[in-house]
């Protein structure tokens, strides 16, 4: 088993192996191992907490709520800003933890930490701007106002692909609103969550306001309790559509407010009037970030026929230069997938596309010589629209190219999916830009860019991707809006 010292952390106290309940680091009768996906080595053993621990954490959050909800917005602002500064000051260690447990390169790990910290900075400012309203009088002798109050205890359930940012995007909003939380990080990546909880304590977040439940064998039961417990008033979840539907079912019994950001299947369209070199840059930024393991990464590439060959050649040349390996190696440009099941899914999508007429331009194979969790960044041409990856999110380093002729045709192809999170396209004609941006059935659109995520932009999708927004405007997701009418004036 590893220790903080041999993980290369400067501040070893950031390496926690126990959950957090009411300000106490809590163990469990059993533990589970967390492995580095790059080499399979064990990073540490983490407390395998259960339903009783979860109930205690929810009770702790409930007990802490009255005092925390009564703090002033300025007090919450100051604590969040201190939290933000601590994340910035510890960026080397926090970025390294992300790389160790997730596999992404160290540059990406540090980049995620900066992105993660930006939510705390953003919501610190949102805390002091959660304004109410003064209403026009309903009748003579009356006055009306609208106030906003914290919704209560919040359950936060997060995935492994952004083990820090998916927490702060929710946690920052909840704390700014005056809510208390119970966090369940992904089994694969608990260390980043625990390090954040430690920094939150250092920033002055009172005990019980943030609680963290780490679990593996009790995963389903813990998630069920977090959604069904009547004390919990709000659930924020990021993960697959399949799991989102299960959790929504659990929450329906008490009609909890939910924010769900589930599966994506982003189209990436290149029209014949696009700057092809810029489109290739955007494709790489969108598709291969975090080795293709992001919910907003391009999943289906549609290229207009007259520029198809040029785009395919330029993208293939770029992808063939990628260096795949351990994320801690400075030469590495792309790291491993999270586990062997993820590799198997990418390979299944590749083989399915090939069986339906696709051609491998780059990659198309497992990289067993590096390790069991590595797959070559891949570009396939002439991919049929009935291929598996057109109906399923690959979540890996696979770019599938499909030819199209007309604008109407490609919009129909792009919208032919049950989910709608992100979409991208490259074009210069301003009329086309407006038309396509409005017609794409997604919650977020990137026009001539492959990067669309920021703390100050609303994040979320439509259709079976889920509902609610994160980032900008999302503090309202953690508040209730109450109208108060005064009579007899």
UniProtKB/TrEMBL annotation:
Keywords: Oxidoreductase. It holds the Pfam family Aldedh. It catalyses: succinate semialdehyde + NADP(+) + H2O = succinate + NADPH + 2 H(+); succinate semialdehyde + NAD(+) + H2O = succinate + NADH + 2 H(+). InterPro entries: Ald_DH/histidinol_DH (IPR016161), Ald_DH_C (IPR016163), Ald_DH_CS_CYS (IPR016160), Ald_DH_CS_GLU (IPR029510), Ald_DH_N (IPR016162), Aldehyde_DH_dom (IPR015590), Aldehyde_DH_Superfamily (IPR050740), Succ_semiAld_DH (IPR010102). The active site is at residue 261. It is an enzyme of class 1 (oxidoreductase). It comes from the Eukaryota. CDD domains: ALDH_F5_SSADH_GabD. The keyword Ribosomal protein does not apply. Residues 28-484 form the Aldehyde dehydrogenase domain. GO terms for cellular component: cytoplasm. GO terms for biological process: gamma-aminobutyric acid catabolic process. Pathway: Amino-acid degradation; 4-aminobutanoate degradation. This is Succinate-semialdehyde dehydrogenase. It comes from Serendipita vermifera MAFF 305830.
């Amino acid at each position: 088993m590893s220790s903080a010292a041999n993980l290369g952390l400067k501040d070893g106290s950031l390496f926690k192996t126990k959950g957090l309940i009411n300000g106490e680091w809590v163990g469990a009768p059993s533990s589970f191992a967390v492995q580095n996906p790059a080499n399979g080595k064990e990073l540490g053993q983490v407390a395998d907490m259960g339903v009783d621990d979860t109930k205690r954490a929810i009770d702790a959050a409930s007990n802490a709520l009255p005092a925390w909800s009564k703090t002033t917005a300025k007090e919450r602002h100051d604590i969040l800003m201190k939290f933000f500064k601590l994340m910035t000051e510890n960026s080397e260690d926090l970025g390294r933890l992300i790389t160790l447990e997730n596999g992404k390169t160290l540059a990406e790990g540090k980049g995620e930490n900066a992105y993660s910290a930006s939510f705390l900075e953003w919501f610190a400012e949102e805390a002091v701007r959660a304004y109410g309203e003064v209403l026009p009088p309903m009748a003579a002798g009356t006055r009306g106002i609208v106030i906003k109050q914290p919704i209560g205890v919040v359950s936060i359930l997060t995935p492994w692909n952004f083990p820090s940012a998916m927490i702060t995007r929710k946690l920052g909003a909840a704390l700014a609103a005056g809510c208390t939380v119970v966090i369940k990080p992904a089994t694969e990546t608990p260390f980043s969550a625990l390090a954040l909880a430690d920094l939150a304590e250092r920033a002055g977040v009172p005990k019980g306001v943030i609680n963290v439940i780490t679990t593996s064998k009790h995963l389903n039961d813990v998630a069920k309790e977090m959604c069904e417990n009547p004390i919990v008033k709000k659930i924020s979840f990021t993960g697959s559509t399949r799991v989102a539907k299960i959790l929504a079912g659990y929450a329906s019994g008490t009609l909890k407010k939910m924010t769900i950001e589930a599966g994506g299947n982003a189209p990436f369209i290149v029209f014949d009037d696009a700057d092809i070199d810029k489109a290739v840059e955007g494709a790489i930024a969108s598709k291969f970030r975090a080795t293709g393991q992001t919910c907003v990464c391009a999943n289906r590439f549609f290229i207009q026929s007259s520029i198809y060959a040029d785009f395919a050649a330029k993208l293939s040349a770029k992808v063939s230069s990628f260096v795949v390996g351990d994320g801690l190696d400075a030469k590495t440009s792309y790291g491993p997938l999270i586990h062997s099941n993820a590799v198997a899914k990418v390979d299944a999508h590749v083989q399915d596309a090939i069986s339906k007429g696709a051609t491998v331009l780059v990659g198309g194979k497992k990289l067993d010589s590096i390790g069991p969790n590595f797959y070559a960044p891949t570009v396939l041409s002439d991919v049929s629209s009935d291929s598996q990856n057109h109906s399923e999110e690959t979540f890996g380093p696979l770019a599938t190219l499909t030819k199209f002729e007309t604008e109407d045709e490609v919009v129909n192809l792009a919208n032919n999916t049950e989910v709608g999170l992100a979409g991208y396209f490259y074009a210069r004609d301003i009329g086309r830009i407006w038309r396509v941006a409005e017609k794409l059935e997604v919650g977020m659109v990137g026009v001539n860019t492959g990067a669309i995520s920021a703390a100050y932009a609303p994040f979320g999708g439509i259709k079976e991707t889920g509902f609610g927004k994160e980032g900008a405007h999302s503090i309202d997701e953690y508040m209730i809006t109450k109208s108060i009418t005064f009579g007899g004036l």
